[in-house]
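User: Before I run my own analysis I want an independent prediction to cross-check against. Here's the chain; please return only the structure tokens and, at the end, one sentence I can use as a sanity check.
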Amino acid sequence: IGNIHIFDETTDEFIGDKGFRDADDERFTVRIPLSLQKGQTRLSTRDANTKRKITKLRNCIEREFGRLKQWKIIGSIIDTNLIFKIGSLLKILGAVDNIYLELLFVPNNNGEQDINFIKHREVIQNVL
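Assistant: Structure tokens:
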């Protein structure tokens, strides 16, 4: 995945899409929603539920990308003079977004309960 140096822990996870399918890096785990293999009609229960969990996390990320793209300065082609400042620019736009726009994720006290529910649902057979 190139020169990504922000991952320090072996427990770090990277959520990606199909474009990162071939990513092989020992510094972190890549989580990608599973796809059907050729000839496969549906995913196994475990794979389908794993895909749901990853997709649920990616949803917040993709919605934030959509918000950021509404800013004219990064909404289309980015001027090459800004390439070296893009990290700072994204931090500033993200901070403004966090202050003035509705939160995409609201932490609550039900976190442990939600995790247990998801784990419980992982083993329940999917029915069409």
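Sanity check: The chain has a mean pLDDT of 78.
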